[in-house]
Design goal:
Layout (H helix, E strand, L loop, with lengths): L6 H4 L3 H22 L1 H10 L20 H7 L12 E7 L7 E6 H17 L7 E4 L7 H13 L2 E3 L6 H10 L4 E4 L1 H13 L11 E5 L5 H11 L2 E8 L4 E7 L6 E3 L4 E6 L12 E8 L10 E10 L11 E2 L10 E3 L2 E3 L1 H10 L6 E8 L2 E9 L9 H19 L4 E5 L14 E3 L4
Parallel strand pairs: 3-4, 3-5, 5-6, 6-7, 16-19, 17-18
Antiparallel strand pairs: 1-2, 7-8, 8-9, 9-13, 10-11, 11-12, 12-13, 14-15, 16-17
Bound molecules: 5'-O-[hydroxy(phenylacetyl)phosphoryl]adenosine.
């Protein structure tokens, strides 16, 4: 039986959602016009005033915000309330390396925690659960967001943060943790460490995991589910829009419901900036219609994905976003071919490897090089070079098939690629100066 945290909103009819969005959008545009001179100038430059925005149909008239705007307006230029109403900041280096700072009022934090609570309940959580929050705490939003959400659900919350894997496993066992929240790469690492300790899925009480903050494939979901004996749910978000909980998976495990009472999603062509029709793949753009201290209108996420309004078996009506398949700015262009790290990961997992790899891109004699370093699993580890070469050749063929270009594959010893307790570092692009 599906449970909901806020059923009247999460299962509202499309008309009800649109009515909420229309009302909040108008108010938010006026709020930004009155309080954020940086964005007001952008609107004036485009010849748009708040009167031009009456319904969500008018959204396309508003200018976009991008990471460049955040950089230009750093640190306070996009703050939407007086400083005495700001109670917290969070910050991220972002996938592209630039540090940004986002502001929260108490109301913003309440809404954000509601979103995370919805995600926990959608993963089967209730006040009877012990929820171990193993995302990093501090400037990163993962720990704080899910910790707040877990409190709202009434779970017994374990704010353990990331790292110290043996202690993580000890707490899971001793406190009987039933839900874990962390990055998918850290969940995979926990699974590996458990195996080394001689523990299998039946030795831990976990039933669900809420994993996000980085791209992960369906194959990785299967592998984590098997190793930990859980159901693995995806959660999406970004610091600019508050953090985790912008969208989350339900029991259907087939895409993430976007919290449409707080965020309006659009898909655009990243090159022409044109809004694309429903179902098309493109860059996700969000308008936050509630957040007041850091109000983002038409924020370009750079995440590439697709939206679907197909009826969901869970009963929730909010639009679903597919797993982001990469970022428009993370997409590697190698010898003219677009390559997403997630495609490489899919091939590795299909060949029985775990998601411990590093993609190294370089340029020799004006030609791009693509090197993929992959850890052998302990079972396949051998110093028989004929055997290793055979495995390498298999992967080269699999990658050629998937990407259409040739990659050099180097198999390395188990555990030789540095582990991250937060987001994994998958790509090293040495072409950038
Ligand atoms: O990663 C917030 C978060 C924390 C989400 C914990 C989920 C769980 P940032 O550090 O600002 O915020 O990074 C945001 O991470 O634009 C995506 O590119 C990527 N990302 C986040 N969630 C997912 C996901 C947090 N489920 C950036 N799948 C976003 C793929 C994700 N990519």
């Amino acid at each position: 039986m599906e449970r909901y945290f806020q059923k009247e909103i999460e299962c509202a009819s499309r008309d009800e959602i649109i009515a909420i969005q229309n009302k909040k959008l108008k108010e938010q545009v006026q709020h930004v016009w009155d309080n954020v001179p940086y964005y007001r100038k952008k609107m004036e430059k485009k010849g748009v005033t708040p009167e031009d925005i009456q319904t969500i149909e008018d959204l396309h008239k508003l200018p976009f915000l991008s990471k460049k705007d955040l950089r230009d307006a750093y640190p306070y230029g996009l703050m939407g309330v007086p400083k005495d109403q700001v109670v917290r900041i969070h910050s991220t280096s972002g996938t592209t390396g630039m540090r940004l700072v986002a502001f929260f009022s108490q109301g913003d934090i309440d809404l954000w925690e509601d979103c995370c609570a919805r995600a926990i309940v959608a993963a089967g959580g209730s006040k009877d659960d012990v929820c171990q929050v193993s995302y990093g705490f501090g400037l990163f939003t993962g720990g704080a967001g899910l910790n707040g959400g877990s409190h709202k659900v009434g779970c017994m919350t374990v704010p353990i943060s990331s790292g110290n894997t043996e202690r993580q496993i000890m707490f899971i066992q001793d406190l009987q943790a039933s839900i874990i929240c962390c990055t998918p790469s850290y969940a995979a690492y926990l699974g590996e460490s458990m195996k080394e300790m001689g523990l299998g899925p039946d030795d831990i009480p976990l039933k669900a995991g809420i994993f996000g903050a980085e791209a992960w494939s369906e194959e990785m979901r299967q592998s984590i589910q098997e190793t930990l004996g859980i159901k693995a749910y995806d959660i999406y978000g970004l610091t600019e829009l508050s953090g985790p909980g912008v969208a989350f998976e339900c029991s259907a495990q087939s895409g993430m419901h976007i919290n449409e009472d707080h965020f309006i999603a659009e898909i655009i062509d990243p090159d022409t900036e044109e809004v694309l029709p429903e179902g098309a793949t493109g860059e996700l753009v969000f308008t936050a219609i509630d957040k007041k201290a850091f109000p983002m209108l038409r924020y370009r996420t750079r995440d590439i994905c697709r939206l679907s309004r197909e009826k969901c078996s869970c009963g929730r009506t909010h639009v679903k976003m597919a797993k982001p398949m990469g970022r428009s700015d993370d997409m590697l262009i190698i010898r003219g071919v677009n390559v997403f790290p997630s495609q490489i990961e899919t091939v590795l997992l299909e060949h029985g490897y775990q998601a411990n790899y590093q993609i190294i891109v370089g340029r020799v004699n004006n030609t791009d090089t693509l090197d993929v370093h992959v850890e052998m699993t302990p079972e396949m580890f051998t110093d028989d070079m004929t055997e290793v070469t055979k495995h390498q050749n298999d992967l080269v063929a699999g990658l050629k098939n998937m990407l259409g270009i040739k990659a050099k594959v180097t198999l390395v010893a188990p555990k030789s690629i540095t582990r991250s307790e937060g987001k994994a570092v998958r790509v090293i692009d040495n072409r950038k100066i």
